[in-house]
Design a protein that fits this description.
Blueprint (H helix, E strand, L loop, with lengths): L10 E5 L5 H18 L9 H14 L3 E8 L2 E12 L8 E10 L8 H15 L5 E3 L6 H9 L15
Parallel strand pairs: 4-5
Antiparallel strand pairs: 1-2, 2-3, 3-4
Length: about 160
């Protein structure tokens, strides 16, 4: 599948493969750095790269998870990953889709790359019978909030935290 990307030739979207993992860890690290600037408490622990690599590997291999990438000239420039989760048994809706991460390199933002990745994820969720998709957005991440709202997402829960030390 090819992403129509104004001004950028040869941008391709595809499911991730294990040989993408080194590059995906690099992009994930940029995502974490971006969030640390917004919320300093958003930081990985020692060895978090290996933990995320293992996490991403499961999203490549397991049928109830996905990891899609956008590639330009052989280089992965963006990704989206998500899964199907199960509600507690007291809830009417048994399962729901969740987008866990999306990251697009700066040079490829605001050019439809994130939208094409989201549309691939949405197609995947629908094919898996999911009628509800959730995600989290950092409270100070106006760019992400705007992106997701432009795709029809609305407020559902507000997550609060308290540091007790």
């Amino acid at each position: 599948m090819t992403i129509h990307h104004p001004g950028k030739k040869g941008l391709k979207m595809r499911p991730a493969v294990e040989s993408d993992l080194d590059r995906l860890v690099d992009l994930w690290r940029l995502l974490v750095q971006f969030h640390q600037k917004l919320v300093p408490r958003f930081r990985g622990q020692e060895g978090s790269e290996q933990g995320w690599r293992d996490f991403a590997k499961r999203h490549i291999a397991e049928h109830d998870r996905f990891l899609f990438v956008a590639e330009a000239s052989g280089d992965v420039v963006a990704y989206i990953l998500g899964s199907i989760e199960t509600n507690p048994s007291v809830m009417e809706m048994g399962t729901y889709g969740i987008v866990l991460d999306i990251y697009v390199l700066d040079d490829y933002r605001r050019r439809g790359v994130g939208t094409q990745l989201w549309l691939a994820a949405l197609e995947w969720f629908r094919a898996k019978g999911q009628t509800n998709v959730r995600l989290n957005v950092a409270a100070l991440n106006a760019l992400a909030e705007s992106f997701w709202r432009s795709h029809g997402f609305a407020d559902y829960l507000i997550r609060l935290y308290l540091e007790t030390t």
